[in-house]
Amino acid sequence: MNINSTLFLQAVVFAILVWFTMKFVWPPITKALDERAQKIADGLAAADKAKSELSSANKRVEAELATSRTETATRLADADRRGQGIIEDAKARAVEEANKIIAAAQAEAAQQSVKAREALREQVALLAVKGAEQILRKEVNAGVHADLLSRLKTEL
């Protein structure tokens, strides 16, 4: 064979190989490469989407935490106010009860004082009558001199 015919035959075989490769080998390879590229692109898109969703979820969580903190602070302040109100009410009731007890004790003391004064007047009147009886050396009749004794009580 001649170089020219060999070269020509090699060129024909090469062309057939190129055609066969382009027709039967290359499309599945490009299809597999395209599918792989699509999977990678989908994975990257899913990763970006997940990243944005994570960022959004973190923002929502932070917002919820802030809301929860403010709500908790509000509830604590409200509970503190209620506690102070209850304490103030209890103090006011205690002061009111103490004032009632003091007023009752003062009234009872005044009543006891009046009773004691009356008892002292009675005793002083009896002592005065006994003293007068001893001075006069005669008996003073309490029934007869009741008017005199009552005036003596009022004067004392």
Task: Please explain how this structure is put together.
With 156 residues, the chain is mainly alpha-helical. It has one domain. Helices cover 92% and strands 0% of the residues. It has two helices and no strands. The protein has helices at 3-136, 146-155. Helix 1 (3-136) packs across helix 2 (146-155). The longest helix is centred in the middle third of the chain and has 134 residues, at 3-136. It is rod-shaped and about 190 Å long.
Q: What is the assembly state of the chains in this entry?
A: single chain
Structural class: mainly alpha
Shape: rod-shaped
**Residue-averaged pLDDT, rounded?**
86
How many structural domains are formed by the residues? 1
Q: What is the rounded distance between the termini?
A: 172 Å
Summarize the amount of helix as a percent range.
over 70%
Low-pLDDT parts are: none
Rg over CA atoms: 60 Å
Largest sheet: none
The ordered string of helix (H) and strand (E) elements is HH
Beta strand count: 0
Proportion in β-strands: under 5%
Secondary structure tally, helices: 2
Keywords: ATP synthesis, Cell inner membrane, Cell membrane, CF(0), Hydrogen ion transport, Ion transport, Membrane, Transmembrane, Transmembrane helix, Transport
GO molecular function, one term: proton-transporting ATPase activity, rotational mechanism
Pfam families: ATP-synt_B (PF00430)
Transmembrane segments: 7-27
